[in-house]
Amino acid sequence: MAEEMFQKDETLRMRKRLIGQSCRLFFSDDPVKIVRARGQYLYDENGVQYLDCISNVQHVGHCHPAVTQAAAAQMDLLNANTRFLHDNIVRYADRLAATLPKKLSVFYFVNSGSEANDLALRLARQYTGNKDVIVLDHAYHGHLSSLIDISPYKFRKLEGQKDWVHVAPLADTYRGLYRHDHPDPAQAYADTVKNLIDDMHSKGRKISSFFVESLPSVGGQIIFPRGYFTKVAEYVRAAGGVFVADEIQTGFGRVGSHYWAFQLQGEDFCPDIVTMGKPMGNGHPLACVVTTEEIAGAFTANGVEYFNTFGGNPVSCAIGLAVLDVIEKEDLRGNAVRVGNHLKDLLKQLQIKHPIIGDVRGAGLFVGFELVKDRVDLTPATEEAALLIRRMKEKYICLSTDGPWENVVKFKPPMCFRMEDAERVTEEIDLVLREIQDASLQK
Ligand SMILES: Cc1ncc(COP(=O)(O)O)c(C=O)c1O
Predict the structure, then answer these.
(1) Probe target for ligand 1 pocket from 24, 109, 111, 114, with the most ligand atoms within 8 Å of CB
(2) What is the 141 CA–ligand 1 centroid distance (Å)?
(3) pLDDT at residue 2 in the model
(4) Can you name the residues that pair with 291 across neighbouring β-strands?
(5) Does domain 65-329 sit in CATH 3.40.640.10?
(6) Could you report the per-residue pLDDT of 38-82, keeping only the tens digit for each?
(7) Ligand 1 centroid to 248 CA: how many Å?
(8) How many other CB atoms are there within 10 angstroms of residue 387's CB atom?
């Protein structure tokens, strides 16, 4: 297959003319044109290799042969309407169920994280009979209208907050309301949710769901205090609501020690609804909602069919099964623990040398470090973070920033990321941070 149809300049010109400009490119000042990829490496039109530290969607590695072969073989055999009986969907649901707590046993397959969260919203409302939703500040749950409404990250820049949406503070123990020095941040942050529920009740409103990313990503690679979810779930369920864990960024072993990031909260914790997406199909649009029999039962009882043209088709499920096989066969969770810990250790060593690194945090291969102008006021070093990303790109390493002030440098690489990759990227970060420091001293 031809790698390029147009010269890079022409592709860019056509893109500007034909594609909506709100669909932004990485490195928009000087975009990279990628024409092929393998494992954790991307290749541009001149064959230059880039180390990919950000493609969490290509979970088991770009163009993994086991995944592409499974897709091609099933595509060649059958890809029929999802209303015909087929083995792939049930084999896949059964394999996914084995990774989840027993209570989560009924699956709905969809095509994107947004579709999954929109369906979760419907399930929660149908089951509880309530409308209101509590979300965390800075959360992002998807691009559909229903999800913009529950994503402060988006609605704050648009029409604002709907009366049925309630925003709790982000349980961030680095720069949030309650920090590492608080004796019980999990309880303190859970109490903020309880207060919102009480406030809602005083206005005659009722909660359908508490929606949360198991580890907030656009919020800045946040790791919640352990026990927070258990306490919140207690308050939410007592008020008649359900707990929805958005695992769209964090599922499928990204955190290494567990298959699902909500499991970091403790063995006793189980959400009522879990949504998954991005890494599920290694780039193929595949996403899912899993819930309890009771919640699914209430959804069925309304008598309205749920039909999704592409969700759970034989090809998507063949791809999903291949992804699960690779995670197991290549011990990618073990790799996430080993390489993620090494990466965090290396970044912590850099933190000792570079005062601009205020915090290093993460679990498995979901890692972030936060740049600050000073370690007391935690003033975000946003320009420095942008400069670091630009300089790393010049060194053929793709990184990006997140967080409300775009000062958190995030790592969510394909799970085949290696020790050598962690060493190379941290050596280069060290050099660039030294340059940034030297430049600021000369000012
Ligand atoms: C936490 C989270 N939820 C939901 C979504 C929406 O997923 P999609 O873009 O597949 O619709 C995203 C996408 O970035 C996400 O990060």
Answers:
(1) 114
(2) 6
(3) 83
(4) 106, 273
(5) yes
(6) 999 999 999 999 999 999 999 999 999 999 999 999 999 999 999
(7) 6
(8) 17
